[in-house]
């Protein structure tokens, strides 16, 4: 597939010496959904702002659809749609006029059929004559997406699109993103919500302190870094882990009624068979056994923690 976005050694250093981006390199193919995860201050918004030309890079290159954002800014920027975190809309303007105006800003000819198609896609057509101030928070977010799509971009950035919205609206937004992908739009999503990345992304990137720690297929990431946990639930409460089980590095639940064993799914042997035999030999009676696959949240927290330890 063809790369729609090519970022090479992108750096951003502010006047006070703060390094917001530290040599980020990334390629995104057409039709992908990429989720960028990272804590506040990780560099997610700075990365998007730099690609969109809002912030000037200190070094490195960015090409969108083959156009360099410095040498061919207008051509590159015309291929990008941006949905910012903040809902900053003219409250007394009507929905349809807001979208038409954004299309005109990019020099696109008037096309009411295209505007209607976008509004219908985002379930805004019935609200087209409403003033922005009359809309709910979720509908205002939809208007932001409609504005970003008005000039028919090939690459769409969604910067924390579901921040501050309830769970129902968040899932509704996921459906919108899936629909946009189906229509051929490439999407880069920044989020704090791990479940968002798990639900809709093809690849997941983790950013911390201006560095891209990894970018990988979601399924491969789970397979490569995922661990499983075996929880052994007991019929009687333990005060401490028996000495005969010390080699398994078990953890005892606060209530003393279960033991947790963590193992690598990639290992040739899990050690579960010998563990259960030794649990029985220690005189412990099992009530139940439950397994749990580690989530992206576990992986994300572990990566960021390791990065912090490396800098300590």
From TrEMBL:
Keywords: ATP-binding, Nucleotide-binding, Transport. InterPro entries: AAA+_ATPase, ABC_transporter-like_ATP-bd, ABC_transporter-like_CS, ABC_transporter_ATP-binding, P-loop_NTPase. It comes from the Bacteria. The keyword Aminoacyl-tRNA synthetase does not apply. One of its GO terms (molecular function) is ATP binding. Coiled coil: none annotated. The keyword ATP-binding applies. Pfam families: ABC_tran. Residues 5-234 form the ABC transporter domain. CDD domains: ABC_DR_subfamily_A (cd03230). SUPFAM superfamilies: P-loop containing nucleoside triphosphate hydrolases. This is ABC transporter, ATP-binding protein, putative. It comes from Roseobacter denitrificans (strain ATCC 33942 / OCh 114) (Erythrobacter sp. (strain OCh 114)).
